[in-house]
Amino acid sequence: MAEFDGQAALVTGAGRGIGKAIALRLARGGADVAIADINAEWAEATAEEIRKLGRRSWAATADVGDYDQAQGLTAGTVDAFGKIDILVNNAGTSKSAPFLEITKESWLAQLNVHMSGTFYCSQAAAKDMRTRGYGRIVCISSVAGFMGPIDLAAYGAAKAGVIGLVRAMALELGDYGITANGVAPGPIDTELLRSAWPADVYAERAEHIPVRRLGKVEEIAHAVAFFASPEASYISGVIMPVDGGSVAAGAYMVEKYRRRKKAGN
Q1: Does the pLDDT of residue 1 top 70, yes or no?
Q2: Could you give the domains of the chain?
Q3: Which of the chain's ends, N or C, has fewer CB atoms near its CB within 10 Å?
Q4: Catalytic site residue 120?
């Protein structure tokens, strides 16, 4: 048997990038997967790929930062599959700006999706999970939640908030057989990142990472699948960086980068 046979999952922000990779990984493991995304076309495209793998999939367009839409999303998943065993809170947004130039609208928008959306979906899914005494909640945070990111104060604060929420859920939901964990990606090779950075900056960024490359979406999906598996039942409240050693290196990476430049290799 595959590790997720007979299970139902909901993945938010799964129309493309990291979320899509997570949804496909769970489906390959045997799960039926509900796909949520702000973009209806992307959501349906991912759902169709899952159906081609022989699993059931339901696609929904939703803004998880809207309470009513989040409730409808989780209720729709239960209607489609009869339950929710796995919730992956992946939906996110970001807008860079120096701290003194962040607008109220940008601040609220980022906190709304990352923090409120994660809370709304998690609470609703946990209520269903509680009825069966089993559940896995996995939240996508970021290494920006561990450090002070340049021009991303709102994003970093929101991702740090997700880390705090994961730990609170681990404590409060443990009585119901529900675990809560988080994955904190470093720079990952996605369409969004490639469009946001000039080609020369994009290539140079890898030199700022101990393993000298950007991560792959499949590597985030692998970490999520581990936390979502039945075998991870004694792991809760953990935030796992998947970042090529960036958090571990900390400020020392500056000197490492300088030496790499000097050596010219």
Answers
A1: no
A2: 8-263 (3.40.50.720)
A3: C
A4: no
